[in-house]
Write a structure and sequence with these properties.
With about 270 residues, the chain is of the alpha+beta class. Helices cover about 55% and strands about 20% of the residues. A hairpin with a 5-residue loop joins strand 3 (about 145-150) and strand 4.
Length: about 270
Amino acid sequence: MLKFEGIFGVSYSDINQYLLKIGTNLAIAISILVIGLWVVKIATKAIKNILRKSKTDESLVTFLSSLVSMVFKVLVIITSITQLGVEMTSFVAILGAAGLAVGMAFSGTLSNFAGGVMILIFKPFKVGDFVMTQGEQGTVKEIQIFNTYLHTSDNKVIILPNGPVANGNITNFTKAEKRRVDFIFGIAYGDNVQKAREVLTNLINSDERIMQEPVPFVGLGALTNNSVDIVVRVWTKTEDYWNVHFDLNEKVYKEFEKNGLHFPAPTPQISAN
């Protein structure tokens, strides 16, 4: 033992104490990390519940909860690192020195954060709206600090970065209270156009979901090579748009058949060789 002390200049007891100190700090740091992240999870869930009970906009709920979760997690990690004996002044100095590189690396992330803030301030859409943006369309389920989550009609989840979304074109299909439903019904040449107009007008007037103001429009739209196209434009509440679209199509098909009106078959294209 004396030989060991003579060579390395430390005793076994000093080494044991040092290892015990490191082990203790490591155990405490791990405990802080595990328990802290668990508390953050519980706290984030509680904040969500409180915001929802206070009837806060769902878009703000998801954004604030994800922001709070990220901040608390960073604090937990810093506290855990501090427990290992790393001086925070040195830690901050290192972060400051690497700030430019980190800023360059995360410029897209910062842009996404700014985009999320812009979405919440100007509200081009909110949770529950059906939108089209960045070439994708779906129902907005979450607006988080960096990303917006869309669910498609067939339940795919699309994750879009907030930066491009906030700076790009956005089509919000549900923001307005009413929408216009457009149809083009083609009948065969020789069919009674006036009869077709009467059938369509009766179907429109019998559907309570179709508004009478603005006045529904029924008119001859075009004379194509194989059909006489009748244009129909009606207004309805936004939530009734698709039901009116599908129901009127089905009713027109049945009523045209009953009244001797025909949908022309497409004319086959014959190529000359």
